[in-house]
Amino acid sequence: MRDPKIIVALDYPDAAGALDLVVQLEPALCRLKVGMELFTAAGPRLVEQLMQRGFEIFLDLKFHDIPNTVAQACKAAAALGVWMVNVHALGGRRMMEVAREGLSAYPRAPRLIAVTVLTSMSQEDLTGLGMKDSPADLVLRLAKLAQDSGMDGVVCSAQEAALLRRQCGDKFCLVTPGIRLANGVADDQSRVMTPRIAMEQGADYLVIGRPVTRAADPLQALNEMIRQAGDRV
Ligand code: C5P
């Protein structure tokens, strides 16, 4: 079965906006990411509608709570039938292990990945939380912890992908946002990479929002991303 490398981020305030875009895309070309804004507004019903259209869904809700609550939330995501779901690695080993165990009863369980350090966090932010590691060291520490706790991979910036690929091996799934076409605008992303370089650095999947969702022709923009990523259909 085809395994599209691009995950289009549906950062919309409501279902109507998301569906207006989705009718222009094709499930053979991409997967879709539903994050907390859209999920809070439109809920599981929209996720079901997107899956009925043939799309696989990354439910990006970044669960972070006590182990039992996170495990139950992951099970709810599995019951919904999503392809990928995520938790915060900062929830710790036991939270991640219990989340993994919670999915063991599902034959087609979602891929379970972790967020390490939000890219919005500076060294100063970490120091304010009492953390002494640099952001880069903390990313590596949390990625290793996520791997040891049974996670299938992590969300990381393309800048971190090569190091994590080396440290965590070939099978660890790296999902990378902050992607822009070589000649594209950066929006509010401070460190961006092109699809080709991100894939060369070891990314498995590229999360792409505005370069596709705000394009005059989203399908054409997606096809250009696919071409640059070397993701042949
Ligand atoms: O529009 P853009 O391509 O910048 O969207 C990127 C998507 O990836 C958004 O949904 C954003 O929340 C998400 N993301 C990110 N940086 C991270 C983690 C997630 O931009 N470090």
Can you describe what's shown?
There is one protein chain. The chain contains ten helices and eight strands. It has 233 residues and is of the alpha/beta class. It has a single domain, classed as TIM Barrel (Alpha-Beta Barrel). Strand 2, helix 2 (36-52) and strand 3 form a beta-alpha-beta unit. Helix 1 crosses helix 2 and helix 3 packs parallel to helix 4. The longest helix is centred in the N-terminal third of the chain and has 17 residues, at 36-52. The model has no long low-confidence stretch (mean pLDDT 95). The structure holds cytidine-5'-monophosphate (C5P). Cytidine-5'-monophosphate (C5P) is lined by residues 9, 11, 35, 119, 155, 177-178, 187, 189, 207-211.
Calculate the mean pLDDT score and round it: 95
Per DSSP, what share of the residues sits in E-state strands of 2 or more residues? 15-25%
Give the helix/strand class: alpha/beta
Give the strand order, joined by hyphens, for the main sheet. Answer: 1-2-3-4-5-6-7-8
The CATH class label is: Alpha Beta
Shape: globular
What is the CATH superfamily classification? Answer: Aldolase class I
Could you give the distance between the termini?
11 Å
Name the quaternary structure.
single chain
The hetero molecules present are: cytidine-5'-monophosphate
Pfam families: OMPdecase
Protein name: Orotidine 5'-phosphate decarboxylase
Function: Catalyzes the decarboxylation of orotidine 5'-monophosphate (OMP) to uridine 5'-monophosphate (UMP).
Domain Orotidine 5'-phosphate decarboxylase: 5-225
Architecture blueprint of SSEs:
Elements: E1 6-9, H1 15-22, E2 31-35, H2 36-52, E3 57-63, H3 67-80, E4 84-88, H4 93-103, E5 111-115, H5 123-128, H6 135-148, E6 153-155, H7 158-168, E7 173-176, H8 195-200, E8 205-208, H9 210-213, H10 218-229
Parallel strand pairs: 1-2, 1-8, 2-3, 3-4, 4-5, 5-6, 6-7, 7-8
Helix pairs in contact: 1-2, 3-4, 6-7
This protein binds cytidine-5'-monophosphate.
Residues 9, 11, 35, 119, 155, 177-178, 187, 189, 207-211 line the site of cytidine-5'-monophosphate.
